[in-house]
Protein 1
Amino acid sequence: LINAVLRRVSETGQNVDTVPDLPTWLLEGWQEAYGAEQTAAMENVLRQTPPLDLQFRDANALKDWQVANPGIGHVLTPTCLRLEETGDVTRLPGFDAGMWWVQDISAALAAPLLRADAQSDILDLCAAPGGKTLQLAAGGGRVTALDASKNRLQHLTANLARTGLEAEILLADLENWDPPRKFSRVLLDAPCSATGTIRRHPDLPLHRRRSDIEKSARLQSTLLERAADATTPGGTLVYCVCSLEPEEGEGVARAFLASRDDFSLMPIGADEVPECLSMAVTGAGHVRTTPAMLAASGGCDGFFAARFQKKAEAQT
């Protein structure tokens, strides 16, 4: 396939170096949101082969792995190890023992924002394939993981079995789901355009249009309303997406606060994210990562997270 494409490019007289990597509508949106310089830096990272991040269940598990496998990878956080070489992850040390799971450092930022503990009743929405569920279960909380995809939930169930962690699994469509009870901690990792993951899925821009972003934002707003209704008064709600599009991140968060007077923004502090990504905390109290962050070590996925608190006097 590659040879056929390159032959076709050669026959048409195009210079391979001038063929755009990303569609114009996407680049123009990034330039408006992040500026030309930051967009160019993001493009540069997207052209590189991404490293592999392993998320360990706790800091001791990572230390034990390093002792058994000296000199492999480098530590990004006390529970995240970055490997330069990628390949069949099932062949990596510790896979069968369930010591870790694959999860980009950006995606790992959301779960800790819930500030959950062993007494927390946690609802993880749109949970599969389960990286955040595993993080929350490793923290000792009672986790209920919901997703509308049976196939994706099978991956989550397999990951739980491999790591020895526990969570209640529910197959349901959030748009039509009636929660049996309220939860003190709710995490919504909403379906999105996934433009933050282009470095791992370079074909993704070929399947996206500007209209898809607008459609996704409408769905995200609907799902966030459903997540809010499942949150107890005084409870914490975290909304996140692996998208670089402000319409799906900051825009949805602003619209939610404007429509729900029973919620307030719970700003995220720089001390709540790893030091290497402290620049991801915005002046508005959100988390916003771009591929240009951590560029020297391979970048990271684009990601957005906002945290809200349901007012204690809100009526159920």
Protein 2
Amino acid sequence: LFTSSRDRKVKMWRIDTTTEHHSKTYSIDLEQTIEGHVHSVWAVDCSLEYLVAGSADKTIRVWRNIITPDNLSKYFSLITYL
């Protein structure tokens, strides 16, 4: 799950579900705070390889999903902005 905010950040969250005695429990954990914009972030979209965010600073920034052997979870690194 990705969220964007007026604080100029995009946050990536991990949602886990556990079932116990016919009852579901959800936990939400912050995975990464993604920075790069200088004004509010209004729009976010992602694929398996890229995260794209549009901002009130009139730019679109693109981050690449980096997965390495020692980092098995998603990690996004800024590659460009338009």
Protein 3
Amino acid sequence: MRLYHNPRCSKSRQCLALLPDVEVVLYLENPPSEAELTDLVERSIDPLENLIRIDFNGEPEHLVQLLLEDPGLLQRPLLDDGARVMVCRPPERALEWVA
């Protein structure tokens, strides 16, 4: 599993503490490509508006473009198990996939 993590975010740190064996992706240091963002969006089990830190009402392609322009808008923490992507807010939500 991968955790899209921002070490300055308390929720992201809390989620990481719950998942010690997860692969950490520091998405602000190494922003995902357009293809990676498109894949994350397509596999998300959450509504599109939950994947971004601003009010959003639009198409997946628009969301990807906003995130390419400003990776800091990506909601965190984001957990990717290879098949699905979930916003872990609250962080304990991550435990649904590791139980």
